[in-house]
Every structure is written in C-alpha cells, then in structure tokens.
Amino acid sequence: PAGGISCTIHVFLICMEPWSISVRMRSRRNCGRGWLCFMHIMRLYEGTKEMLSEVKNSGRKIYLLSNAQRIFTEYEMNALEITKYFDGIFVSSDEGCKKPDLKFFRKLIDSCKIVPERAVMVGNDGICDVEGAKNAGLSTLYVHTDISPKGEKPEADFVLDHMDMKRITEILMS
C-alpha cells in the first residue's frame, strides 16, 4: 500500500486518539507491520468473484450480515474488490447486536424487505449463522472452513464439508 509502514502507523494513531490512548513507538511499528502483513495475505477463496457475479447477474440480491467491525470489513471488502456485488452490508458494530441474535437478522430482513422463505443464509458457524438464520425463518447453507468452530456440523438445509464455490453457486441459483 502507498505510504507503507509510516502511513499505517499514522492511521493507527488516529484510531487511538479519541480514547486518549498513548501508544509507544515500538508498539505502533509492531501494530503497523502486523496490519500490513495481514493485508498482504488476505485473499478470497478461489471462484468467489465468479460466484458473486453469477448470483448478482441473475437478479438476486446479496447482503452481508457480519459480526465484525465496520472499520475492518469495509476496508477488506474494498481491497478485495467485492463491495460492488452487495446490495446491503449489515455489520454488528453498527447495529448494536450480533448473530445469532434474532434482532440482527430482523434488521436485515425488515429494512431490505426480504421474504425469509425465499432467502438463504450462507455461513461457516453453526450457532451464529445457521441457528440464527433458522430462527429468523431463513434457509441455511453451512460451509465448513478452517475457521469454523469445532464440533458437530449443524443441521443446515445444505452442508458442505469444504469451500466449493461451484456447488455454492448451484445451490444459490436453484
């Protein structure tokens, strides 16, 4: 990225400023280096853009419902050039609640006028994604990934043992 470590340290300091947090220079550098390393390894699963494009071009709507912080999610989506595929982005840091809370799902459903019986929640967490979506009346597609919580696979409508964008596309297009 333009500016490299100096730019990253500056952004980090700006983020800490509202809370009057004093950060030593060494910590600033380490944080900046860590962030830059993360940004260089951040990548999409193979076939993600093609799947998003096909679903979007079919006239279907795509929404993100995430238990993340907007400051990270927004940057990541823009850096990966996928923001354009989404019709709405709902992030727990903005909404004051998170998955699996029914209120979070209802905010998405109500504000985007989603018909739950015609929607599919795709996720990799059996409790937050699958149970939360089922409680909201959505169909569910569980994909087991390296960061999925340990334990038994959830009782989702569709279950994939690994990331498979072609299969996900087939399910979403059916």
Characterise the protein shown here.
With 174 residues, this protein is mostly helical. The chain contains 8 helices and 5 strands, in the order H-H-H-E-H-E-H-H-E-H-E-E-H. Helix 7 links the parallel strand 3 (120-123) and strand 4. The longest helix has 17 residues, at 25-41. The chain is globular. 16% of the residues are buried.
Helical percentage: 40-55%
Shape estimate: globular
Would you tell me the structural class of the helices and strands? mainly alpha
Strand/helix succession: HHHEHEHHEHEEH
Strand content: 5-15%
Q: Can you count the beta strands?
A: 5
Mean pLDDT: 84
Low-confidence stretches: 1-10
- Taking the alpha carbons of the first and last residues, their distance comes to 40 Å
Tell me the Rg in angstroms. Answer: 18 Å
Work out the helix count.
8
Strand order of the largest sheet: 3-4-5
Sheet with most strands: 3 strands, parallel
Task: Briefly characterize the structure.
This protein is mainly alpha-helical and 174 residues long. It has eight helices and five strands. The strands form two sheets. The chain has a three-stranded parallel beta sheet, with helices on both faces. Strands 1-2 form a two-stranded parallel sheet.
What labels would you give this structure?
two-stranded parallel ribbon; 5 strands; disordered N terminus; 174 residues; 3-stranded parallel β-sheet; 8 helices; mainly alpha
